[in-house]
Amino acid sequence: MRQQTTTTGLTDKNFNCQVLENLHPFVVHFKANWSGSSDIMTCIMDDLARVYSGKITFGEIDADKHRQIALKFGITSIPTLLFFNKGKVIDQSIGIISKRELLDKLKALLHDTTQG
Q1: Phi, psi (5° rounding) for residue 80?
Q2: pLDDT of residue 3
Q3: Nearest 5 degrees, angle CA 106-CA 68-CA 16?
């Protein structure tokens, strides 16, 4: 039985409200249904979303279905992760990254929130 996801589903319509107007740390995973690499990142993100619940919000957006947002942020490769703090991009990652690398980026994101 699959555990309930702890990531927020994002669309062209809810992106601004959910991410850009959010004052808390947010990680957005730009993915596509055809991408095996996206599936790998989804598994890693789901694990870490449970660990960081209440501290960092995690969201996913299908870059093929919601092209307006993908274009706005210049997404040309899948998967891409954007790290937001107070509605602004402070870091990004393109392609598959390891759980360890993502943990390091999440720690940096939380550190950034305490500095600003």
Answers
A1: -130, 135
A2: 46
A3: 55
